[in-house]
Design brief:
alpha+beta
Length: 85
């Protein structure tokens, strides 16, 4: 939703790709779980509560453990950080 996207943007880190649980699940379904790092702190979104979000690093080689259902979410990225799934 717009609320989740706004919270993710306001809690983002410069030059990092910040994605929702749903997007992380979609990346896992495509075999790209190695790209994901769970954000150490959860973000708070109105009407949703605490949300686990992730950072994407397409250069990462080691595996991360992700759980959840496979759905499509929103990718928020900084200019110049394109990701292909």
């Amino acid at each position: 939703t717009v609320n989740v996207a706004a919270r993710m943007e306001s809690n983002g880190v410069p030059n990092r790709i910040h994605v929702s649980q749903q997007t992380a699940d979609a990346l896992v379904a495509k075999g790209k779980e190695v790209w994901l790092t769970a954000r150490p702190d959860k973000i708070i979104a109105k009407g949703k509560g605490e949300l686990q979000t992730y950072f994407v690093d397409t250069n990462k080689k080691s595996k991360s453990i992700i759980s959840g259902s496979t759905t499509v979410g929103t990718i928020l990225s900084s200019p110049g950080n394109d990701v292909s799934i």
